[in-house]
Specification:
Elements: H1 3-7, E1 14-18, H2 22-33, E2 37-42, H3 66-71, E3 76-79, H4 84-97, E4 100-103, H5 117-123, E5 128-133, H6 148-155, H7 177-200, E6 204-209, H8 210-218, H9 222-229, E7 243-247, E8 250-254, H10 259-268, H11 283-289, H12 291-299, H13 303-312, E9 317-319, H14 330-335, E10 338-340, E11 347-349, E12 354-356, H15 376-381, E13 402-406, H16 411-421, E14 425-430, H17 456-461, E15 465-469, H18 475-486, E16 490-493, H19 498-502, H20 507-513, E17 518-521, H21 538-545, H22 565-587, E18 591-594, H23 597-604, H24 607-615, E19 632-636, E20 649-653, H25 657-666, H26 681-686, H27 688-700, H28 704-714, E21 718-720, H29 731-735, E22 739-742, E23 750-753, E24 757-759, H30 778-784, H31 789-797
Parallel strand pairs: 1-2, 1-4, 2-3, 4-5, 5-6, 13-14, 13-16, 14-15, 16-17, 17-18
Antiparallel strand pairs: 6-24, 7-8, 8-9, 10-11, 12-18, 19-20, 20-21, 22-23
Helix pairs in contact: 2-7, 6-8, 7-8, 7-22, 16-22, 21-23, 22-23
Length: about 800
């Protein structure tokens, strides 16, 4: 390893962590792994995560909680004070040498006194200031209390893609996933700001909204879907089938998303008579009808036998892992997905991506509280000089970067879409025989004119991109693809590993075409290991990683989130890509980024294996309750939903004793709430059932608007459980311009989500051009490669390129 590689791509960058909670901690952990010097500024009593565990277990005396030890690895800890004026002066001196700061409301941010993120940037205009808040720094809800749970409700993510059985309350996604996802987005925002600062010499404010993160990661572009097709994705809740089922020796999940998979599933379980060739295949209806028989079949088999058969029939499948079992999976053991913490003996994820050459820093110990209070000036002095570029202020951070996008569906396109919104030229490669599958998942009849151009999901994921069709299974098509590779800075692909390997385009051969290329590969389970060839649908990833395990009710099988497996993979792949670009900028070397989807998912489910290996504590799903608030639950209101059903819910989460007192006051100080045991979180958790009964009765007589007005006005975190397609009605999203109205040459105008960050230097609009028509840019891009008009005509005649599908 070279000296530059040993220090990491972000060596010399100084990041100050003024945040509290998982989001800021995970953001700065990702940056520290990339080589940045992270100085965590703590209050004298230490960060709250030092003593917090999801299981409620108490760390041994003198030891930090294991999750903190994982998240703080490789950072420095500084305590300023107790002299307030001196503390402020010391912080000011530190920030003057820093390149970026991560801020969130709470004790750590309070070290800066009354400073706001805007005032930090004003005092230190070179800084990239990332502020992580529930609704953004400005807007109608900026001061409203919220929790991870209530943000999921506001986002529409609790009902999401139909999450939960219709005869019970819907369920949130367990595991504080919004905190982790917000952390990845913040790390991307900081790296983009640092790239921008190299051009301009100026910093910027990165105003991140956790609500917008939930919208992007827990729902599937429902506003664009609704406004394009004039119907919601799904109007009622249901459990995905076959889904999670109990085998003889554990839980296993089976997926069925196509007609062929339904036929194969019928054959696998010995019921070919379920296939009726005279009727259209409606997967949801058919699997729901046969759910009892399917569960009975699974119950007679082991997990291994079920998975072996399903794999042989090419039916998506996975074990449903918990914190105890995920560390024992052969795939994880063979690839070294978990490693020992360098200080304690628990297991922690090795990381969400792998770079070759290996330029990431190895795991390092977490600091003691204030360990570096006497040495932070040495760290500050070693920081790289501040950038002093002078490029035009309208240029986006990745303008001039050419990205060859060999991805499809959601995970891969979501990564390249962010680059496209931040200025990169992204060329989305499809073929007329295999268009991007996202063009075909909205149920648009193939009898409609240009049906493949009308899917709102493709439209939502591919603005600002160019489309080129190349059938690279042909000799001439492969030659064109190689010429495209040679002209590109980055190639991103999310095929199963065998696809590019079989046509001779693994990293070594790609590097022969472009020595300094950054190649991002996004296999479901990795380029090696026994699960290498397993298909990587979102729910399969969630099942294997442990995300499914914490979602659902304790008296039933888990419920697949069926959403975040894809965007989470895209975010981590992009974070690894940006690190690789920085390494290339410094060294001229190309980089292979292996971003296995399951390892990205394991990284945000880290608390489960960490607490099991540290304490033997197996985290369990608990419906809509959670470890951060008590009471926390959904309560049915008196009004009906927009479909006329008595299925309208509110989310309530009491995260502090002060909020409990506010709740009691808002309810009129009823006698049951005066019990002194309820004044502390432990007492409320012990009496949760009793509290639920009273809150359910109180809510049942009131509308959602009345409940929200009463409780939120008193300072209690509360939310309506929104239908996802109503997201654009939320005042903070309107005020922040999160949705942008876009035109389309085939479909109607529709609003599209952007990124969950408002940037102080723009852009004014993120969507500069609509998602491309199939092969729209064939002539433009191929002409740039030196292909003349006659050759382009020949390629069209041969079907190697084209503008309409030629489905096999």
């Amino acid at each position: 390893m070279s000296e530059a590689a040993a220090r990491g791509p972000l060596d010399g960058y100084l990041v100050v962590d003024l945040s509290s909670g998982i989001a800021g901690a995970y953001c700065t952990r990702l940056l520290a792994d990339g080589g940045a010097a992270v100085v965590k500024v703590e209050p004298p009593e230490g960060d709250a995560l030092r003593s917090w565990t999801a299981s409620g277990e108490v760390p041994p005396a003198g030891r930090d909680a294991p999750l903190f030890s994982y998240l703080a690895g490789g950072k420095q800890s500084v305590v300023f004070g107790p002299d307030g004026e001196r503390a402020a002066a010391d912080l000011d001196e530190l920030l003057d040498r820093a390149h970026a700061v991560v801020w969130s409301p709470g004790p750590a941010g309070g070290v800066a006194g009354d400073s706001t993120p805007a005032s930090l940037l004003s005092a230190h205009p070179h800084l990239a200031v990332a502020a992580i808040t529930p609704f953004g720094l400005n807007g109608p809800w900026q001061d409203r209390p919220a929790t991870e749970f209530t943000l999921q409700a506001w986002s529409g993510g609790i009902v999401g893609l139909g999450r939960g059985a219709p005869d019970r309350a819907p369920v949130h996604v367990g595991g504080q996933v919004g905190e982790w996802l917000s952390g990845v987005y913040a790390a991307i925002g900081i790296q983009a700001a640092l790239a921008r600062a190299r051009q301009t010499g100026a910093g910027q404010l990165i105003d991140l909204s956790m609500l917008e993160v939930a919208v992007l990661c827990l729902t599937y572009y429902p506003v664009t879907f609704f406004e394009t097709l004039h119907r919601p994705w799904r109007s009622e809740r249901s459990l995905f089938q076959p889904g999670v089922a109990a085998a003889k020796d554990g839980l296993v999940a089976l997926g069925c998303g196509t007609a062929q998979q339904w036929f194969d599933l019928c054959a696998m379980v010995g019921h070919p008579e379920w296939i009726d060739p005279a009727k259209p295949v409606r997967i949801g209806e058919l699997t729901a009808q046969r759910a009892p028989e399917l569960r009975e079949w699974v119950a007679d088999h082991t997990v291994a036998d079920t998975r072996d058969l399903a794999t042989a029939f090419r039916i998506p499948n996975a074990p449903v892992s918990s914190g105890a079992t995920v560390i024992e999976l052969e795939q994880m053991r063979e690839r070294g997905v978990f490693r020992r913490n360098p200080t304690d003996e628990f297991l922690q994820p090795a990381g969400p991506y792998r770079l070759s050459p290996d330029v990431l820093l190895p795991a390092q110990p977490a600091p003691r509280t204030g360990e570096h209070s006497g040495t932070w000036r040495d760290t500050a002095a070693a920081a790289r000089p501040r950038p002093c570029g002078s490029a035009a202020g309208t240029q986006l951070p990745y303008a001039g970067l050419r990205v060859l996008d060999l991805t499809a569906f959601w995970a891969g396109p979501s990564a390249t879409h962010i680059l496209a919104m931040l200025g990169a030229e992204v060329i989305h490669v499809e073929s007329t025989t295999r268009p991007d599958g996202a063009r075909m998942i909205a149920g648009i009849p193939v009898t409609e004119d240009q049906w493949w151009e009308k899917c709102p999901i493709f439209r939502a994921l591919n603005t600002n991109k160019k489309s080129v069709t190349v059938d690279f299974q042909t000799e001439r098509g492969l030659e064109l693809l190689k010429r495209l590779i040679a002209s590109s800075d980055v190639i991103v692909e999310n095929y199963t590993p065998r696809v590019l390997d079989q046509i001779g385009l693994d990293y070594d051969r790609v590097r022969a075409l472009r020595p300094d290329i950054v190649m991002v590969r996004m296999p479901g389970f990795g380029l090696t290991g026994p699960m290498r060839e397993n298909p990587a649908f979102a729910y399969v990833i969630e099942d294997a990683a442990g995300l499914t395990w914490l979602t659902g009710y304790p008296d039933d099988n888990p419920v697949e989130p069926y959403s975040l497996g894809d965007p989470n993979a895209g975010l981590h792949a992009l974070n690894g890509l940006l690190l690789a670009l920085e390494h290339r900028r410094r060294t001229g070397q190309g980089v292979l980024v292996e971003a296995a989807m399951v390892e990205a998912a394991i990284s945000i489910a880290a608390a489960q294996p960490i607490e099991f290996s540290a304490f033997g504590a197996l985290l369990q799903r608990d419906g809509n309750r959670g470890p951060l608030a008590a009471p926390q639950n959904l309560y049915r209101s008196a009004d009906t939903d927009e479909f006329g059903r008595l299925d309208a819910w509110v989310a309530v989460a009491v995260a502090t004793d002060e909020q409990w007192a506010a709740l009691a006051g808002a309810l009129g100080h009823p006698a049951w709430a005066a019990d002194p045991e309820l004044s502390a979180a432990a007492g409320r958790r012990a009496r949760h059932d009793v509290i639920d009964e009273h809150l359910a009765a109180w809510c049942a007589d009131r509308t959602r608007d009345e409940i929200v007005e009463t409780l939120w006005g008193a300072g209690v975190p509360v939310a309506k459980v929104m239908q996802p397609h109503r997201q654009a009605e939320l005042p903070p999203l309107q005020a922040r311009g999160f949705f942008e109205l876009t035109e389309h040459p085939v479909g109607p105008p529709a609003r599209q989500s952007t990124i969950p960050m408002r940037l102080s230097d723009g852009p004014a609009r993120f969507h500069r051009s609509p998602a491309p028509l199939l092969g729209e840019h064939n002539h433009e891009v191929l002409t740039e490669l030196g292909v003349n008009a006659a050759e382009i005509a020949e390629l069209e005649a041969a079907g190697i390129i084209g503008r309409a599908p030629r489905m096999r």
